[in-house]
């Protein structure tokens, strides 16, 4: 199967080789159903375009750079899977960099990408990045750029994100309808786009249901390993104390769950918990964790498609815009309604 060619795909689907070639490039001239069939056939037979032959047609490197805060974050691992799937089918190598939540390292990653003569750049900003001059310089040099997940309004670039506002609104609304009235929000650095959008959704839900917004119930994290416990202690010392926690990241969700259990607070009897997370083990936690799930792999796929479109047909690519993909609220034991608690057996009786 390693020698499977465009001609083989064309013969398999009974279409022309030029149609297959345009479909693999994502051409706007080919209808979506034909593109789907071609991509599925290419995947099934492990078709791989020859990047050396492709690069000989022009000056391109047939490589794109991807910069993420941390590969160990399950969201970014899923997004990279989506990016690589699209890049592979369209004949591109993927070079992955990690900023490790460092602005300086992110700038160095961008410089290394430019030095490697990549054809385009995909980036999700680090938690320290509150200025984007290094990315404006990338654009000034004519390198195609697409941002995903953590983005910046200062850049005139295509941005692919989850609907963070709607997800946060749905999570907060669920807690309110479950009988909670003092909902704490643990979030990440305030200058990040996802922080602002999720906080706005939280505030909008409180306003919709006539609950006051109390800044004492908001805590900003810095991705430190042991910071959640002290935040929980501060919040539970308030009068009245929170009866629910809504967290804005995987790390905060798991940290909050651990901290609440260590303090012998029964979930959800004493306090409810819901996260904004892509954890693949959320249903295996004790209690199972309610979450807002982001379409991480789809975000990666769409971001890669948009970038490669920019690389291959800059004038005919989709116009600069923000692509917003829907989130999904998954309700599990950690935020069960107060009226259902008597029937649940997992409550900590200590």
TrEMBL record:
PROSITE patterns: HTH_LACI_2. Coiled coil: none annotated. InterPro entries: HTH_LacI, LacI/GalR-like_sensor, Lambda_DNA-bd_dom_sf, Peripla_BP_I. One of its GO terms (molecular function) is transcription cis-regulatory region binding. Keywords: DNA-binding, Transcription, Transcription regulation. CDD domains: HTH_LacI, PBP1_LacI_sugar_binding-like. PANTHER family: HTH-TYPE TRANSCRIPTIONAL REGULATOR GALS (PTHR30146:SF109), LACI-RELATED TRANSCRIPTIONAL REPRESSOR (PTHR30146). This is LacI family transcriptional regulator. It comes from Hymenobacter crusticola.
